[in-house]
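Bump. Still looking for LysR family transcriptional regulator structure tokens.
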Amino acid sequence: MELRAVECFVAVADAGTVTAGAARLGVGQPAVTRQIQQLERQLRIRLFDREDGRLRLTSAGIDVLPVARRLLRQADAVSDAARGVAAGRLQRVRLVSPGTTRDDVLAPWLATWSADAPLPSIAEASVDDVYDTLRRGADLAVAPLAPPPALGSRVVARLPLWACVAPTHPWAQRDAVHLDELAGADLLLLERSFSARRVLDAALDAEQLGVEPRAEFASPVVAQAVAASGRGVCVLTDDPRFGLVPLTIRDADGDALGIRLHAAWDRRHHAADALERLAQDLSRFTRRRYA
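Sorry for the wait, here they are.
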């Protein structure tokens, strides 16, 4: 079935005569007649009856007409999408990140987008799997892990690693805590699959500090809730909740611990330049947010 035949059918149905339908399409009447006859043969139904010099839709034609309209709209949408692809534009963008990055970084960033920006969606993936999603349809992956060198990428943020305490905790009036102090505290830590935990463990190992956490959690929100109840110190990169006081964690050299956040995309993506511009915009946003 050719779209041109469907266009002729819809034009004649709207205009009421072949002559008027042909004029709307800017083609000759014989060509429109042939297209409609061809369509009727393909569909094996009669679309029009002639009545008083005009064409009237048959019952079959009435049923087919709305479907034909949808088909033409969908064809127009395909053409628009193809032109966008050819021009390197993004109409929709599929973002992927770990849950903490989604909630604390990407969602606030999306709230700053204009109405004419690409329509976003965000899927959650583990830190170790996030970049593999670029091979399965994701457009932009954001994670606290350096991506493979074959991907286009940039560092979009350096997130501080916080030691969060309840307002009643003895450290609540401070702005920082050193690793050796932290090692002796009642620690409420995330599981080792979290980047925050990996960074903390690496820093503790570098200073030969062993710790035995009081508890481990699969949810940063739950870890913060338990810390807010006065059970200990939770360590994470999440924005503080439940009135917790965040303290900078410093190593033996006085440097603050943190995590680099990376954005990555497939260099062969049709809109690779647009994705790089999005990564640059995310970098600007995080600089303002975490300045």
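Residues 3-86 form a domain with the Arc Repressor Mutant, subunit A fold (CATH 1.10.10.10).

Edit: fixed formatting.
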